[in-house]
Amino acid sequence: MAFRIASRLRLALIPFPLIALLLVGFHLSNGPMGVRLEPVGMRLEQDPPGQWRPLDGQMSAMWTGPYLLQYRVRLTSAETARPLGILIGVRGASEATWDAEALPSNGIVGNSVATETPGRIDWIVPVPPARATVGTHTLVIRASSQHLSRGFSRADLQVGVQPLDDLYGRRYRAWLLPTLAMGCLLVAALYVGAVIARTGARQGAWALLGLCLVGLVLPMLEAWRPLVGYPYDLHRTRLLAIRVLTALSALLLPAYFALRFDTHPTKARRAERGLYGLAILIIMVFASTFDLASWLLHVSGLSMSLLITYRAARHDPDNAASMFTVLLGTTLAAALIAPAVYIDGLYMIAFAAILVTVLLAHAGYLRAGAERSVALEATRARLRTALLRHSIHPHWLMNTLTSLQELIERSPANASRMVELLGEEFRLVRAASEETWIAVDDEIALCRTHLAIVSIGRPRPLVLHLEGTSLWQDLALPPGVLHTLVENGLTHGVGVVSSHDTIDPQPDFLLQAEHMGDTHLVLRMSVRMSVALRTSGAARTATPGTPGTGTRFIEASLRTAFDTDWRFEQRPQDTRWVSVLVLPRAVMHRGWQERATC
């Protein structure tokens, strides 16, 4: 009860730190107001000198120039107390005059691509102190945009007059929190990379590493303009890179949550994800403006992630999915309520907060998984010892030796064959007990050797028939899983052959393989049940209840090797006892590679 109350309290408190971070980021990115500017107008250089047109961002976006922008600046005594500067954000080369006094130029304004030298995208130039007096002043900007690429619907002019220290402070202050977040993400990316190198990618680790890298590069691209600057002809390249990275983040964030919380998606879920990926691609390619595309991509990624975590939280309200649902919901609400503010930079703080939370939860998940693996490995070792003791049980040894003695007197050739098979089985068991993985073909060889030993002295040999052998090439299993299924079959399934068994045309043991989707392999071991077992009804009641040593060994082995990504079922079906294993092929292949390199 106390745990549930603490969990609910934690979920209720999650939005507050995130909102506080967003408010701090908003405050840092919005500095003091500047001097009031009155736009006079704009005109092409060849237009008559007095023919000024109202400032129009859409029209000026089509001009290559040279063109002129004129502003009227009114300064008060308070505003002239500190040195002033002019921020000119024009996608072009520019030169300006303050009351007809020329200021340092930004590139070279030209009539063609050949004569123009591109200027920097943002340009801060001091106002001559002698000219920064109380009264009205005239600011004229002459610019050209001969290198401008198509695709901009608005010019997005930024012209402002402020104290110089405010202009520079505003440039750097807004990046305090994102820079701190980038440092955290760098450490996190190194941590995730080290985990993948040590234990392999599990539960979306690759998606998480990709998110960390995107979370590092994306703020760098965003900060490139205010912190470093660049020639204006690189502006479109930078925006396209931001759009692609934003689309990647919109794919990777839901992908991580899907790999973490929905490991066995249905066909409908897979189709849903395919449509989502297609929608992201369409937005990335066809959205008209860069800001609209970024906002749509962010909202789409948050919405899809929220849907996945919400579904997971419904089944288990106390797991990490509930925490992510609240966090993603809060972020999505901020993006919907204030889209312009969110896309202007706050999304980086929210994105970093989500990633840091995901990383902390993932680290806790890995730690719990490691502790669980240690406990499971101990359990598995104990069960394996129990099975080995069972295999060389004195009663079994006595029966085997008795049979061997009879065979020596009655059939020396069969006795020799039994000794040979026993040696082969002990060699295979010893080799398998020293490995974490065993190739499926080697495990099958062990099973067939064991059946050959048991078959000596029977009216007809027991046969393990295989179907779909090509599907388990280059795949491996935890040692002893199939052998234990065969042992269970011998103990509880196959009995003395009677005339009634002829109605079942299938072999005694049948191992079939088939794919389940693109990710999993299904191994189905079916064993013909004896007439005595079928008629006794024991098979019908043997399913649940307390599992035997063999079943517990198989479950512990699968849990150690595949974490939670596996399924094991046993049930009677007509005249046969059927055991079904559903296993991830990627992990089986990695186990095969690990075994091959030993």
Feature tags:
alpha+beta; 5-stranded antiparallel beta sheet; 19 helices; 598 residues; 5-stranded mixed beta sheet; 15% strand
Give the SSE layout:
Blueprint: H1 2-13, H2 15-29, E1 37-44, H3 57-60, E2 67-75, E3 84-89, E4 93-98, E5 101-102, E6 123-126, E7 135-144, E8 158-163, H4 164-173, H5 176-199, H6 205-228, H7 235-261, H8 267-286, H9 290-315, H10 320-337, H11 339-391, H12 394-410, H13 412-433, E9 438-439, H14 440-455, E10 464-467, E11 476-477, H15 481-492, E12 509-516, E13 520-528, H16 531-536, H17 538-541, H18 549-562, E14 567-573, E15 576-584, H19 585-597
Parallel strand pairs: 10-12
Antiparallel strand pairs: 1-2, 2-7, 3-6, 3-8, 4-5, 4-7, 9-11, 12-13, 13-15, 14-15
Helix pairs in contact: 2-11, 5-6, 5-11, 6-7, 6-11, 7-8, 7-9, 8-9, 9-10, 9-11, 10-11, 11-18, 12-13, 13-14, 14-15, 15-18
Quick rundown:
This protein is an alpha+beta fold. The protein is built from 19 helices and 15 strands.
Structural features, described:
Strands 1-2-7-4-5 form a 5-stranded antiparallel β-sheet, with no helix packed on it. Residues 540-544 have low confidence and may be disordered. Helix 14 (440-455) packs parallel to helix 15 (481-492). With 598 residues, it is α+β, with helices and mostly antiparallel strands. The chain has helices at residues 2-13, 15-29, 57-60, 164-173, 176-199, 205-228, 235-261, 267-286, 290-315, 320-337, 339-391, 394-410, 412-433, 440-455, 481-492, 531-536, 538-541, 549-562, 585-597; strands at 37-44, 67-75, 84-89, 93-98, 101-102, 123-126, 135-144, 158-163, 438-439, 464-467, 476-477, 509-516, 520-528, 567-573, 576-584. A hairpin with a 3-residue loop joins strand 12 and strand 13. Helix content is 56%, strand content 15%. It has 19 helices and 15 strands. The radius of gyration is 36 Å and the shape is elongated.
